UniProtKB/TrEMBL annotation:
SUPFAM superfamilies: Amidase signature (AS) enzymes. Residues 2-303 form the Amidase domain. It comes from the Eukaryota. The lineage of its organism: Eukaryota, Fungi, Dikarya, Ascomycota, Pezizomycotina. InterPro entries: Amidase_dom, AS_sf. Gene3D superfamilies: Amidase signature (AS) domain (3.90.1300.10). Pfam families: Amidase (PF01425). This is Unnamed protein product. It comes from Aspergillus oryzae var. brunneus. Signal peptide: none annotated.
């Protein structure tokens, strides 16, 4: 939940979290078969579109990819056109934004977000205010959101471990993994705790248990009719926008796509906030933040077009000084490779 969007946001780059099933998860250490998805993080929307086109497609080793409606992978780079915001209906779930306003650093993000709305309007989009997630107030308190993740993880990690060609420590279940982590000093336990695994095991079910199905159905309600899908349908929207720090949660439980694009950075004087280990800055002046475009399942092509049109009109990424500046374009590297040039 957020493992593409959040790193992309704070690194001032573009991230695409695709529809679950657009890209294969074969060989990836799993958390949840219902939520895991593999997507690109890149300097620009165009670069991310190139990568997405390369990794998308059906794979018999991941049966979720067989649900894709695309007989062949779309040419996502072709969606990178400046006019792709023209005529689009974009909704704002205003009832989500107060969660960010409660944070001391949230006002800077909200101010930049409101300014972005003008950019979208000037590009020809229609903004639908109060396109709210009707189940949002339930979402933070719903036990099913984490219980589904935990139940999936118990089943999925066991399946993953069973396919390893070598397993020198004989780790076959989450219980085995927890025991090994807690006993091997190289794992830095309890500094690096197992609290999430403990919680998963305490629930006592996996995703084949009878109790799992109603939990999963509740998630589909929270993220579907009460979340992204219901909002898109009720207001006849092409996309929904939110600050990226709020955008990962609801789409994750129904597996719908999200694209984050640079929006700005925290201003001078922002109080520094560290992670729980005290070794990673999460919020501080000049730390970037983003805006996210959310859509229905398999709507990546449409979202890429809108994200590209916004990116090119704002170019927020270029306004921050970078320590290392890449100079290669993915398209150029691909052409060099096709021509037999080593780079």
């Amino acid at each position: 939940m957020g493992s593409i969007l959040f790193p992309s946001e704070v690194n001032n780059i573009v991230g695409i979290k695709p529809t679950v099933g657009l890209t294969s998860r074969y060989g990836v250490i799993p958390i949840s078969e219902h939520q895991d998805t593999i997507g690109p993080m890149a300097r620009t929307v165009r670069d991310a579109a190139w990568v997405l086109g390369a990794i998308a497609g059906r794979d018999g080793r991941d049966n979720y990819t067989l649900a894709s409606p695309h007989p062949s992978v779309p040419f996502y780079v072709g969606a990178c056109q400046l006019d792709r915001l023209q005529g689009k209906r974009i909704g704002i779930p205003r009832n989500v934004l107060p969660f960010l306003a409660m944070e001391p650093h949230g006002l800077a993000v909200l101010s930049a977000f409101e300014a972005a709305i003008s950019v979208l309007t000037e590009a020809g989009a229609t903004i639908v205010q109060d396109a709210n997630f009707t189940a949002w107030e339930e979402f933070p308190e719903s036990k099913s959101v984490t219980q589904v993740l935990h139940a999936d993880f118990i089943s999925n990690i066991e399946s993953y471990l069973s396919k390893l060609e070598t397993n020198p420590n004989n780790i076959h279940t989450l219980q085995d993994l927890r025991k090994y982590t807690q006993s091997d000093p190289r794992e830095d336990y309890p500094g690096r705790d197992t609290v999430q695994w403990d919680a998963a095991l305490a629930v006592g079910i996996n995703n084949t248990s009878p109790e799992f199905w109603p939990m999963y159905q509740n998630n589909l309600r929270l993220g579907g009719e009460g979340g992204v899908l219901g909002t898109l349908a009720r207001h006849k929207l092409d996309a929904i926008i939110l600050p990226t720090s709020l955008a990962a949660y609801v789409p994750s439980v129904v597996g719908t796509p999200v694209i984050t694009v640079p929006l700005g950075a925290y201003p001078k004087g922002t109080k520094t906030v560290y992670n729980k280990f005290g070794n990673l800055v999460q919020v501080a002046e000049n730390i970037p933040f983003g805006i996210s475009f959310m859509g229905a399942h398999w709507s990546e092509e449409k979202l890429i077009g809108m994200a590209y049109a916004f990116e090119q009109r704002t170019l927020f990424r270029q306004k921050l000084k970078r320590y290392i500046e890449p100079h290669s374009e993915i398209a150029g590297l691909l052409q060099d490779r096709a021509n037999g040039v080593c780079t």
